[in-house]
Amino acid sequence: MTDARLYYPATQRNRDVILGVLRGVLPASGLVLEIASGSGEHVVHFAAALPQLTFQPSDPEDAARRSVAAWTERLGLSNVLPPLAFHVQDKWPIDAADAVVCINMIHIAPWEATPALLQGAARILSPGAPLYLYGPYRQKGVVTAASNEAFDADLKSRNPAWGLRKLEDVADLARTAGFSAPEVTLMPANNLSVVFRRV
């Protein structure tokens, strides 16, 4: 039988530092929707560490959803629901969540996915509930690391619609959608944890 699990080396490197931030961000209980779950390595790591929460993974790619399901089954996790098939720019098949998590999507998607993410999250979150974003960003007044500049160039070579986003632009869209100003945590490898809370 073919093993459907995907492996992303970056996930192994960043999952624990992300979990450290999420412990102070996610609610004590409830449903956490993950957008663009990819391999599923993040969501199963978080679910194993936070058994009081229920995690709802999602991804538009069939291979990603198969990987999420395979990781969940392999680890025997009862608090990870079957992954949903949808893209942020589609109609979201979920009416409410207690938190939304999105890791490394905004820069590997067309810009139009960002307002769709923020507006979708605003619709399903209650006041005070968090939207957690992780990834590399450009920041006003901060010199972008050479590694991030190289990454940005590589992304654009693969798809001109991809690339590092300005944190200020994302924050402006978030405010319009109904979120607070961002809470920003510096992370390893020139990434940021960005938390918006529903107003």
From TrEMBL:
It holds the Pfam family DUF938. It comes from the Bacteria. Transmembrane segments: none annotated. This is SAM-dependent methyltransferase.
